[in-house]
Design brief:
globular; mainly alpha
Length: 87
């Protein structure tokens, strides 16, 4: 996820539509609310939580440049891919 300034946020959830809704509506205290993180750029799905946790830790360990490359591969225009979920 990101904001208008390009700040990146990586998180983990078992209900992405609910979690993105909460972030967009500033319902969760913390980083995303403080920095107005409300735009979903990229996500991955996993069958089991252990694999998801490993991937989250891996992505968080990457340099910003590598994270940006991952986003640009699937979303070069940085469009909010969750925009239509709440229409």
């Amino acid at each position: 996820m990101t904001n208008k300034s390009g700040t990146l946020y990586i998180g983990l959830t078992n209900n992405i539509k609910k979690r993105i809704y909460e972030h967009k509506n500033k319902m969760i205290e913390g980083f995303t609310k403080k920095y107005n993180i409300d735009k979903l750029l990229y996500f991955e799905t996993f069958i089991d939580v252990d694999s998801a946790i490993v991937r989250e830790k891996t992505l968080k360990g990457w340099l910003r440049k590598k994270k940006l490359e991952l986003i640009r591969e699937s979303n070069p225009d940085w469009e909010d891919i969750s925009e239509e979920w709440y229409s």
